[in-house]
Amino acid sequence: MASWPTETKYISHSTLRIDAPAKVTGRARYASDIQAEGWLYGMILRSKWAAAKITAINLEKALKIPGIKAAVTVRDGEMTARYYGEELAAVAGATKQACLDALRAIEVTATPLPHVVHETEGLKEDSPRVWAEKANASPGRQTDKGDVDAAFPECDAVIEGFYTTPVQIHHPMETHGNTVSWTDEGVTAWASTQGISSVRDGLAGGLQLEQSQVRVITEYMGGGFGAKFGPGVEGLLAARLSKAAKAPVRLMLTRFDQSLAVGNRPSSFQKIKLGAKSDGTLHAFQLENYGTAGIGGGGSSEGGGGGVNFPAPYIYKVPNVRVRHTDVAVNAGSARAFRAPGNPPASFGMESAMDDLAVKLGMDPLELRLKNDPNKTRQHEYKVGAERFGWKQKYQKPGASPGPIKTGIGCAGANWGGGGNKRTQGEAQINPDGSIELRMGVQDLGTGTRTVIAVVAAEMLGLAPDQITVKVGDTRFPPGPGSGGSTTCASVAPTVYSVCQEALQQLQMQSGIADARGSNWFDACKKLGATPITVHGKWEQGLSSSGAGGVQFAEVAVDTETGLVTVKKIVGAHDCGLIVNQITLESQINGGIIIGMGYALYEERVMDGFSGVVINPNLETYKLPGLADIPEIELILVNMPERGVIGIGEPATIPTAAAIGNAVANAIGVRVSSLPITPAKVLAALDQVPSPIAMIP
Amino acid sequence: MKAFQYASAVSPRSAQEMAADHGAYIAGGNDLLTRMKDYLDSPRLVVNIKSIPGLNTIVAGDDHWTIGALVTVAEIEGHSQIRDALPALQQAAAEVGSQQIRNVATVGGNLAQHSRCWYYRQHDTVCLKKGGDLCYARHGENRYHAIFTGNPCISPVVSNLATALTALDATVVVLRDGKETRLSMAELYQKAWDNPLAHNSLNPTDMILRVEVPSLRSRGAYLQVSDKHAFDWALVSCAATGNVSDGKLSKARVALGCISPMPHQVAAANDFLEGKPLDDSTAARAAEMILADAQTLQHNGYKVPLAKALIRRTLLRLKG
Amino acid sequence: MSDSNPEGFGVQSRRTFFKSVGTAAVTAATANAKSVAAELEKANAEKLVGPGAISVTLKVNNQPLHLQLEPRVTLLDALRNYSSLTGAKEGCDRASCGACTVLFDGKPIYGCQKLAIEAQGHDITTVEGLEQSGELSDIQKAFIEKDALMCGYCTPGFLMSLTGLFEANPHPTADEIRHACAGNICRCGTQPHIMQAALQVAGTPIASKTEVIHG
Known about the structure:
Chain B is an alpha+beta fold. Chain B has helices at 12-19, 30-37, 73-78, 80-85, 87-94, 99-102, 107-112, 118-121, 160-167, 185-194, 267-273, 280-291, 303-317, and strands spanning 5-8, 23-26, 45-48, 58-60, 64-68, 171-176, 179-184, 207-214, 219-225, 236-245, 248-257. Chain C has seven helices and six strands.
């Protein structure tokens, strides 16, 4: 049975990111930096209607623009555009300027159709239908356990709340896109993706090619967060343009495009009723939720995991439960998986309700959690984290902090599955000069996958990480998983382990040196003579596991006169399984927390009901946290080597918004039950102005 | 962005003549290029005015400061004498955009910038400001919009410097039809109050040459609150200036931004402050007067308490 | 959706424009009092360029870069798409994200919001120019050491903002660092490590507060 070494030199220590030098010098070439020989610029024309019958798209004038080499429509013949920003056509030309002119020269004949873009409107029977054949509202997951109706009267305390979360956009700093070259030999795509294999398969399927005719390369890419698994419409269009123009086409989305059409986290409107016995034991839970995943209406979307359903009552055990989810289709871009799909809204609703219940019970909200959270890891994390955070010293009754700037604290828990992908493979080429190159068909989206591979290989071979050359991001390498669901590390590390075991075995056989590791490495390699060896390995059982619990504590200051929330501190205690590389692990957790913070305070896709357009399709009014917004972050890494490697990307982002929301409620004594918690909403909650937020329907 | 011709002007007059036929001036370019990229404006000719000599100086006179239109916002922010003499202006400059923006943004450009209303900036809506027949914001997403307006458009002025310069009683010197014309800050924005199509009172070829700022008020402060802590438009901005002697105010001025198509100032409140003790109750009373006639919509009601809080705090900062 | 070809109007109107300016110049030349103004106008007319591509010379990282660009091409577009200097990144093209930050005569600006023709005669520094004789700058080294980058797409922009800051102020406070970097966005969440890296270069390093415990 495979097992990790217990005494380690690199695993569970910190190795600096091996591709950092390339990234700080500008040498790293991202998908959007690729300048293939004779490349053309590509751009997409999108629907300016929220819904329209498109009867004709005339490309003639566009094709006459100097520099334009190709123009294609997304579909032949008539089509129905179902959201603002849906792809209609694309052009490729020698310059961006030529493309800009060509887009404006395309003539679209369209008849606008009625549209609906807001969930609450979409729910109504008489709202315009997104899909003619079915109502906008459709039932999602339903759960019934115990007898809720009988259970609520048995409770000593019952709260009801309406908690809402907005549509959140991924907004990786590098937009979606590809450079695609389609020649007689096949297709090569330099993709900004978190799944080179899924882009390859998507291109092969979409272009009716054999898988072997498509090669996808992703040396560097600028973030994905769940939205970048397939080639997307933009990838297929780039390929078709390349074929038509007989030249490579680089088609990266604009930030405007990015805001409309390539995924988002669905909204949620959660009507929650939660009851407990006087000692705090949860007894009954009821959730009626609706939300939108855009035109997908919660159905499948590229990348999966884009539905409005989420686990409820989330991490808590309640004997009597009734859960109803309703998917509301609206005329807006589809959802896609977004870092811990479903979980941040699930956490925000349930954890807010928990704190509201604690207030009603007169209990410390941390006590209420310890009473009801069945997970031992989180129990431990809550205790250690509370100590570090100073929960006991800091906790005051809601609203008790003196004003006008009131401080408050809150906490919340997270749960995630993860685990390794057993189809992961890798190979290593070992050269007589002792150099070694590991090749895996995975990609590094900034999570540190390259570095993890080097760390594990160095540990297993008794070398230093900088002696390992790591090659990822090419479908010609042995197949690896898409980077999603916090599974990459648990897929890659055990595979590298087995590649290295195989390498040592081969070296032993060929060199006669019993243990080729460390100081023997170069001697053993030398004995290979003139021919390098290549060894393969597959993911092995027993070196990784799934399931990751985490908790976070937040301290905020709320200016009750201006409504401005300042997050002062976050303490995160997270189950890290076997820590592989500490410094990149810390970066991952920080990153999860900061996305969670954006969700809590700033981020929201805003659509106009009348016109059906997105009115913040940019990074100016779609607001992301900046350096000045970032609190002090303290991490407690719970190292559990016996569990093997697990993932951390998703659990780290789940509880942040709930913890911040609870801290705000604790500070001001009333709940802001709608994310993002803006100054406007804080002032409304404090009754200084009538609330603009929808009340319980 | 559509193709255009480009030229550098050597004098304000030559710039004006070149710009006469569908031209646009470019200085920092922050606002113009964004508008051009989104096809809100497509000038035939872009006239560089940075090449015009003499518009980039800051001069301290006996009773006023003269600040050239091409002085950058970063220069105002970093000017140690302005920090002391015109603190409201310096503090307002420090909150403009980001350093990358402040390093190129000019005083003239900041004052002349167009509406940031997200419907105006959305290139696929034809709102009132773009010649359409509907203010989408009025019945739509109006959280960032005005609570005072003289016309159906509710896009507010968002220039930080305008807020500060209004509280400083500044005069803007504009080249209009070949002649220097002096506009008060109110006059600079009056047309935006009256006319939904206007962003300010400047005619297409009018060029801001300089700003003259009286130095007769020794105290000043500027505060804004945004959704975020930095690099975000103000929800409400507030500037206050005045003199304080024996704890009593004189020549006090309060101005607010982001709540009206023009910097919001209430003469009666300024008058009220004359000779009053600089304390909480004076400040609160002034705040009530300044917000008295606010008309809120579905999503922007919060601007009233926010503005009042900012007025109180900004005024109390004059204590020094 | 349709629109006329901008290059079409350009060709025609350029001719008309020259014609009108030329006439004005001749008329003005007859009057002595107006001759100075006329000379200026003539100078302007001579400088009128575009809308087609013209020769543009940029000085980037102390190297001349000769390009043929339309006046509407931004500095960022010129670097990334008309030459191979792809270190400055495009994140928004609207002066909102900071990925395109370059130094313009030593000061950070957004490359996406500066016309390339207006960058002529100025010193442009991109991330590719930070290394001096093969050695990384202090802030580059600190970024590596503190893991102040993840996907790395925002990294060049942050590095340029901080390089500009350190040139003006070698020992900034944490608040000054926040102010200088306000115009740069990172979506991966590297900000805490960026702060650690910047404070280290500022000479006031802060210790990480991470604690490892056993479960």
